[in-house]
Known about the structure:
By secondary structure, the protein is mostly helical. The protein has one domain. It is built from two helices and no strands. It has helices spanning 2-23, 26-42. The termini are far apart.
Amino acid sequence: MKLRALRYILLLASAAMIYAGITTGEAETVFRKAAYICLECIGIG
């Protein structure tokens, strides 16, 4: 029973962190950096 409760607590905590990141604009920053890394890897950027 403790394991099940721990799973739900971790699920809620991770959802809260994802929501906080999205609302502060961090998702856009992460995607932009990923795109730059991809472009540099293939030699365009």
